[in-house]
Amino acid sequence: MDMIILCIPNNPTGQLTDENLLSEIIHKAYENNILVFADECFIDMTDNPQKYSVFRYIRKYSNIFILKSMTKMYAVPGLRLGYGISSDKELVEKTRKSGQPWPVNSMAAAAGAAMFDDSEYRNRFISYLADEREFMYNELKKIGLEVFRPSADYIFFHSRNNTDIYEKLLEKGILIRDCSDYTGLSEGYYRIAVKKHDENKILLEALKEIL
């Protein structure tokens, strides 16, 4: 084994890895010369990103590479803006050489700098997301769905009802993620995004009609 990929929080469940387990994984990987690639593109949407990020191990272990995205929280996927973090200088240099000569255009760079400085928006967004995420979690449970405790801007749930929720919602003009094609999952598992309150209410009403 050459590399372990960790998605923090997990996709599609939205679950966060236990701190002790995370520490053990990184240490064991280091002992066996295995790279730990941590996808933390959604971690800044969690309530306590510092607690679950592998960043705190980066000075102690050289076998870590962290992938971060600038576009998730700020809803600008078209910018294709992100960055990587590692204490392994050789790995960083190999990554740099394998990329394009000018991977970030000037507009994306300017937008990225503005995002880093805009703490007011970030705090307001995190506060809204936490409230709306909890609202959706509780309302989905009331409908009778098995809902996994979310930590980012998406919610994973399971329905024991034989109704094809994906197709029924699609008929109503609502698109969600059918997760039945994920390894280890079967029909009845879905992922939805936490959106604006009015849009979330439309989804909830549609689910009530279907189920």
Short structural description:
The chain is an alpha/beta fold and 211 residues long. 40% of the residues lie in helices and 16% in strands.
Describe this entry's structure for a reader.
The protein has two domains: 3-117, Type I PLP-dependent aspartate aminotransferase-like (Major domain) (Aspartate Aminotransferase, domain 2); 120-210, Aspartate Aminotransferase, domain 1 (Alpha-Beta Complex). The chain is built from seven helices and eight strands. It has helices at residues 19-31, 49-52, 89-98, 106-117, 119-143, 165-171, 197-210; strands at residues 3-7, 35-39, 64-69, 82-85, 146-147, 154-158, 177-178, 189-193. A four-stranded mixed β-sheet has the order 1-2-3-4. It has a four-stranded antiparallel β-sheet with strand order 5-6-8-7, with helices on one face. The longest helix is centred in the middle third of the chain and has 25 residues, at 119-143. The mean pLDDT is 93.
What structural category do the secondary elements indicate? alpha/beta
Distance between the termini: 44 Å
Strand order of the largest sheet: 1-2-3-4
Name the helicity range.
40-55%
Instruction: Write down the overall geometry.
Output: globular
The overall pLDDT average reads 93
| CATH C-level class of the largest domain | Alpha Beta
Order of helices and strands: EHEHEEHHHEEHEEH
The fraction of residues in strands falls at: 15-25%
List the helices and strands and how they pair.
Elements: E1 3-7, H1 19-31, E2 35-39, H2 49-52, E3 64-69, E4 82-85, H3 89-98, H4 106-117, H5 119-143, E5 146-147, E6 154-158, H6 165-171, E7 177-178, E8 189-193, H7 197-210
Parallel strand pairs: 1-2, 2-3
Antiparallel strand pairs: 3-4, 5-6, 6-8, 7-8
Helix pairs in contact: 5-7
